[in-house]
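Appendix B, record 7
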Amino acid sequence: MKRIAAEYLYTLDSFRPVMNGFVEVDDEGTVTAVGECSDPDKEETFHKGALVPGFVNSHCHIELSHLKGKFRKKTGMAGFIDQINAMRDISDRASRMECIGQWMDRLWRQGVSAMADISNGDESFQAKASSPLYTRTFLEVFGSEPQDCAQVMSSVRVLQEKALSCGLDAAPTPHSCYTMSPELLTAASADALKSGYLSYHSQESPEEEQMLLLGSGALYENRKRLGMSTPPVTGKPSLFYFMDRLEKIHPSPFEEHILLVHEVCLTGEAADAVNDRFKNAYIALCPLSNIFIHDTLPPVRLMRSKGMRLTLGTDSLSSNDTLDIVREMHCLQKAFPDVCLGEILTWACRNGASFLGKGEVLGSVAPGMKPGIVLIEGLDADGRLTDESFSRRII
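Structure tokens (predicted):
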């Protein structure tokens, strides 16, 4: 049995912390008790800072960790794609796998208990299978030409079998509207929905929206220059195109867990459609990646006003300087100072666990749960994050 106490304890049964709170866990890390210290001075272990449940990184590309520091910033999506195409394989396989292992270990030590991770190959499987961190692996597919759909799906299903043989939860998932033919978008989505979980890069950039609305712009020209087919011009936000392709699989409403990643260009009309058609929709906010590529942030106030369930991700080290959930939270706190830390932690912990179907074990601190216990240090006098804030795993 272990007892830990701190100035603040965020159980996440509400946005408010328990002041001078304690948590007790058994030898397996299962929470046995929580409460307020009767006398903090008499606690054997009392920390300055906040005790919180383990984080859930709801969107990561851990296999791109070898690309840290290699990319130019603020190039827009078209420029970012050009860099990915040029540098994705600049390191040898052994070096890439070693880097993945190092960052998986770092994520765990910083307090990440679970992750929704994107994979395009098998290089991360070994590290994820051996990590105490739970991952659900989304096997992302690309293919702009309709005639390639069957071959692409055959290949990704082989990759899925390899992931499953490693003991991972894994299934195909679509990437985005602009990297997939309509046929492949539907086929990959069908496999994802069958698994119960789908992750999709959606409305990530104004260039994506311009492509679907008008058939023009930097991303449209990028695809044409590479000899790739482009999605149909619909005159609507790209999210509607995705929803229409899902309707080819089965009618709405969709009960499956669907993660819409980024949504930088989300509109009120699109948000209403999501709430109407998707019963288990989540939005993965990756603010530092959005700033890195586009120098913009998603419309968080709109999302909150529409009652959307938000989660936090780091994206990859090709579009971020670090994989640090505290830094993502701090970015959002600075941009949206009216949002309290407890709400942001709910996005970073509880909502992510719910998306992954792990809400009964992870994401909050209550007896019977096993979320991992993390200490956030370097808070200001009001208990808010600062430039110096950092996290470390206690349990």
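Remarks on this record: The chain has a mean pLDDT of 97. Residues 37 and 359 are 27 Å apart (CA to CA).
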